[in-house]
Amino acid sequence: MSRAQPNRTNTWGPTAAHARAVWCGLVLASAAVLAHRPDLLVLATPFVGAALWAALLRPTSPLTVRQSVGHSTLSEGDATTWHFSVHDPSGHADDIAVRLRVAECIDTQPDHGSAAASVRDDGDQVLDIGVRALRWGRHRIGPARVVASSAWAGFQWVSDSNVNEVALLALPRTAHFDATATSVHRPGLIGVNRSPHQSSGTEFASIRPFQPGDRLRRIHWSRSLRTGTLHVTSTWADHDRHVVLLVEGFDDVGGSGGIDGKASSLDLALRAAGSIAEHFLAVGDRVALVILDNRGIHRLPAAGGSRHLRRLLETLATTETTGRLIDTGRVPRGLPPGALVVTLSPLATPTALERAVTMAAHGRSVVVVDCLPPDITRQFPDEPLATIAWRIRTLERTREIRRANESGVAVVQWRGPGSLDQVLRDVQRNAAARTRRPA
Amino acid sequence: MTIDGNEQPTLRHQPDRSAFVLRSLIVLSPLAAVGITWLAADRSLPGVAVLVVLLAGACAIRPQSHLGVLVVAAIAIQWLAMVHNHTTPWSIGAAAALTVFHAAQAAATVAPTTAAWTPAMWRRWSRRAAALVIASAATWIIVALTNAHQPATGTVLLTASLLVLATGAVWAGHGNIRSHTSK
Hints:
The complex is a heterodimer of chains A (439) and B (183).
Chain A: E1 5-6, E2 13-14, H1 16-34, H2 38-56, E3 64-69, E4 73-75, E5 79-87, E6 95-102, E7 106-109, E8 114-118, H3 119-122, E9 129-133, E10 137-149, E11 155-158, E12 166-171, E13 193-209, H4 221-227, E14 231-239, E15 242-249, H5 265-282, E16 286-293, E17 296-303, H6 306-317, E18 340-345, H7 351-361, E19 365-370, H8 384-406, E20 410-413, H9 421-435
Parallel strand pairs in A: 4-12, 15-16, 15-18, 18-19, 19-20
Antiparallel strand pairs in A: 1-3, 2-11, 3-5, 5-9, 6-8, 6-10, 7-9, 10-11, 10-12, 13-14, 16-17
Chain B: H1 17-41, H2 46-61, H3 67-82, H4 90-107, H5 119-149, H6 155-172, H7 176-181
Helix pairs in contact in B: 1-2, 1-3, 1-4, 2-3, 4-5
């Protein structure tokens, strides 16, 4: 995407340098005349020359500066370019400098978002500034302050600093995530996953005696001839998987160093949610998103496909911890029965696990991904009380997690790709045991 | 009216090497002018040197300020008071030092302190400063010749100076200076 808009054009104005050249030239020349000191005329020459030079090459036409950003949406760690193009009708502008204001989570190249160039010799390509998003979220880029100078910096033109502000949306970086575990119960007969049910499908399950209603093309003739009774080949049904990602963004625990540094709990949660969603969507499953944060509940209905992944990541990127709501532990409405609910939370308070246990008690398969930074007790070296508090909380969490496990809620710490594999196998095994019926 | 505006430098705003070079020139060139004055006069006034260094340091911190006029005034007054040889070639050196001072202070306002100067910018500013130094040398030659052949001077110098004054007055009365200083 590219957005270009002409900047407001201001007029050229004299600078302190021009005033200095004029006044020093005047005063020194006057002194040379009045005091009969021709040597002072030698000292006045640079100032008189600079003043005349600047005045003779004074630009008359305002500049037109166009600014555009290469991409308004990108992933964490990706970079785009902020383009500047300058049109100088009078051709008297010598130097041009740009300073781009960016948020803390944005890195620029050149450093500090500043660049300078000679308009005639360097062109305006030198002024392109690379912008790299270090952390997910909606970041403000700009406004850019552009200053053009004429000869001897005698006159300067300053762009309007209140325009050309662009919001850059940085999506959470998704790590490659691969789960080979089979799916949990889902009462549907479409999709690419093997159902715990035996029905019309493609994957072989067993050979069993014929029952009324079995299709004749399923008869296994060799077994039937050997045994003397009709046998049929049974298959596992195919179904899709409905995954609900429940992201709890009430707290952002731990410091965030962006994509290249430490990860806070919200960093881990959003990146893990993105990775899980990418995996399930890639295999044809449907994924819904529910974000609980201090501003309320944000939902994204279940859907599939790459466009849905983009929508999901954009929704994740808008998560904010600024707000006044507190977590009451209430289960969000509209979670479909039989869905796999993946809750991503730092478990900073007991309410997250209480909510997971409640959902599991209502028959849903629940997996809790613990997103608390592993080194949280070492992140406060200067605050011994905070360290002790987190140690106590960690012990409490251990007890709460054990109780949640006893209630059928699997809790797993996010350690990147493969974190959920064993948990999903266990969940599938339990679900299959609950729903298995005689063949 | 500089690109740095009124922002205070922070850890995120580490100056570029070009900013260091320009600010060093802002401090060192007036000091060189003071030294040249001492050489031309065969005597020294340390108090003036201290004053010039302090003012030049302030100019290095805020190159967009008008303190540079005070630096030039201090150097000119010292020259006027101490140097009595009206055709001394040291005046070319003093003019060169003042050229560097003015050019460095002006150049420091064209880009933010964190921006790197391109080689083309360095070349153009150096060429133009050299042109002004050559012009100063030419002026000195004219002054020396005029002084040698027409000791009464008067007419030529006065006419040239009045022309310069008239030109400066035109620009000063153009409204630009007044509008700038009133901002």
